[in-house]
Sequence to fold (398 residues):
Amino acid sequence: MKSLDQALEVLLSSVSAAPEKESLPVIDTLGRILSDDVTSPIDVPSYDNSQMDGYAGVAAEINDSRQPMPVSQRIPAGHPGEPLVPGTVARIFTGAPIPAGADTVIMQEAATVDGQGRVTFLQKALAGQNIRPRAGDLRTGQMILSRGRRLSAADIGLAASVGLERLSVFRRLKVAVFSSGDELRQPGEALGFGQLYDSNRRMILALVQGLGCEPMDMGCIPDRFEETRDRLREASAHADALVTCGGVSVGEEDHIKSAIAALGTLDMWKVAIKPGKPFAFGRIGKSMFLGMPGNPVAAWVTFCLMIRPALMAASGATVSRPIVMHLPAAFDWPTPDVRQEYLRGWIDDGGCVRIHDRQNSSVLSSVTECSGLVEIPPSTPVKMGESVRFIPYTHLLH
Fold:
């Protein structure tokens, strides 16, 4: 069996180049993958400005003054002031440009104004205080967003803050999702004896959409070789990647692997993870094929650990390992598997990791009732209080 790291290394090295680029308005790029580095065309801020409402002046003059100081001008945000008259201060507001000659801002709470509009300060002035200097955040030519980044709302705000109207991003990856099996019925249909609802395909479609890819619902494939082959061939003409749930084990009615082999190339892996293990990787023409096990929790875990990084790499994204938290276990795990296990669990109010009492790979409620995966190394028992690795779902699903 391949370890997870070995499987990921082979998988990611086999991913094709990123899709084509397109230029979009900045407001339309949420969740998209940046195709080029972005540098700032301006300094941010582009001028020295006040960090708060108060009075701008010369620190040495303020500290030496024994009389209330006159206010020579009023500077709101968005309005450049005049050079500061010596011996005076300027009433200034947050974000307003610092007038030439001033080197300090004293907040209004540290000042009193007499009946003639003159100001007495209740604290010493320090040169540079409460002033946001030009280029204090960004400087012209500084890289602000790097190629391969999945754009967040903050990234969109940052791009807008330097005046960018459009960004170059990769086209959305088209991902065709199939389920397979004669035993599956669709939600809304009546169940017969021995049948179950097709939940995996909808779950995987949602996971694909959550990655910013374009999901293509290809329905459920019956357990017939010819139809399986034809449906996969048709999808490969339009999709960048094909993802299936089930049909990649050794059963006589599992036809996906033989259909892929007939149409292109296929590599069957046994990956040393639990739940999971059976995994298929191959190609039909330019389309990447990714085949997952059919049990719902095994499909969830396999998607998080293997499908997600593969789709992100194919989308042009920079792929990094998920952030892991090291926390004390609030459970015992005395009989570990020889494979690396991923238990469903959560962090309790005391900062300890607890696990769901049902860890069977068919119990999808164990995923919805938890907030992350607990990684148990192969053949490694866990005692209460020992440190374990916890990976929040939030680090696995975007």
Remarks:
- The longest strand covers residues 214-221.
